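ok here's the first one, seq then struct tokens
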Amino acid sequence: MRKASGATGNGAAFVLWVVVVPMALMAASAYFWTAAFPKAIPLRSGATPESVDVGQKFEVLGAVFTLGGYVALLATLWYQRQQLVDQRQRAAEDQVRSEFFQLLEAWQEIIHNAGYRGETGRATFVKLSEQLASVVEMKSGGEAGSGECKPDPLFELFYKGDVKALLGNYFRLFYHIIRYVDQSDLSQKDKDGLVRIARAYLSEPELHLLFWNAISQHGIEKTKPLVEKYDLLQNYGGFDDQQFKELYDFRAANRGAKGECLN
């Protein structure tokens, strides 16, 4: 819709300056020549039957028509320049979308090729989520943020060895996909649309893992702000029973303290 509106605006401006303005100038000049000018300067003098010399007035009229043509030429050049700018912008936006889907495909390949303790593909993330949940349940007996119940030490008990080797690449690529969209020249509406597509790929176990990764030392500085900005945990059902949910600023995504939508 934004592109269509821009094209419509450029087309209207083109018609205005190439057609309307020159036509108005020439029509006004023709009216002055045929109606107003003969009354102001009679074509014949009262003292002599000889015609009044009006050659210079014709030159003025010709100059007006020339000016109209010059305005039309400038407007045409401006319109062509705007068309070129729009084409380059559309090409750049199409390139962002194309590269986004290529990155998304590479990210999904990591998921499909994943394997852990006899599980493969997305089932791997179910196993990892269950393992993380057991660690949190076993170690987090106190209040959030107190002693060993700080999120980072809890996550580090899980995020090591084969788990770190497997999830490290997964989280890094996902972060760069969202960051790539966020830093692009797309409108915010278009950015939100692409991120929603990426968010739709996240399963519940992946959301669980992302929730914890983003508040750990591995994601709190870079990943967490993007998670909040683009509401990447919108579909995560674990908000109601997570004692660490207050570590997220849900206001950035227009959500309440328990993850409920405020719209």
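and now the second one, same deal
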Amino acid sequence: MKIPFAKYEAAGNDFIVVRAEDLPNARSLGSAQKGRLADLARAILAQHTGIGADGLFVASPPADSGHHLAVRIFNADGSEAEMSGNGIRCAASWFLDTDKRRGSRRARKNLAIETTAGVKEIEYVGDHRGSRVFRVNMSRPILEPAAIPFSGDVEGPVIRYSLPLSQRPLEVTVTSMGNPHCSVFVRSFDVLDWRAVGREIERHPLFPNRTNVEFVRVLSRRQIEVRFWERGVGETASSGTGSSAAAVAAALNGLTQRKVRVRTSGGELEVDWTKSGGVFLTGPVRLIGRGYYEYSGEPAAAAT
């Protein structure tokens, strides 16, 4: 069947957005049909046999009429993600592109989108160099080990924890931005095989739900550079929740101020961990294209 889709990129992170109502057996796509959505995600996100992207957003009407949209988020391996800081901006831009009920999209400055990590508030800041810019309220970082979840024998916050690995232990800082994160500080991205280390940490037994991994280089009190190994995806050019977690980790370790610019391979983001405790992520979104995906309904192999 033909499934209408739109593809967006946010600082090098790319996402496909589809409507739940356009999917096969749409009326039964509840939580019990997670396997069916996982099959679709693996197929459509495949780089060579699908459209190709880091993640899939399935959009549906919100449970609360006061909100604008509800989304479920899937990784390339078919696993479901709680939240995506870059992806939620793509979903907001998709909503502005497609919603016809309430007048001009430029009048829609503040959106509320339901995720499995809670309702996220997104402000449309404006346009810049062909992209839309959004500011996302990422909520407070989660620092308690049990809530992250992290099974190490330590009380929160988890700072400079010696994580045992196959080659040697590494000091890590562990947080959650609605999804689990492990931040590793490095002087250079060439001092270790960070992709191999990221792959190992992602599935480390101390992370019951696996984890996202960030490798962080501090450039100044106001700027950091980060490389990302995302749970269920692998290496990505950028990550919104990962940038937020890296900024929180840098501040917890006393290495930066609470407001920083984050340099990623895909572009720059701004993270502000305010004195009130909330984390705000600001960055661009660009529409790549629209089309129809020819879906056979056959399960695709899981990504490795």
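notes on #2: The chain has two domains: 2-139+286-294, 145-277. The mean pLDDT is 92.
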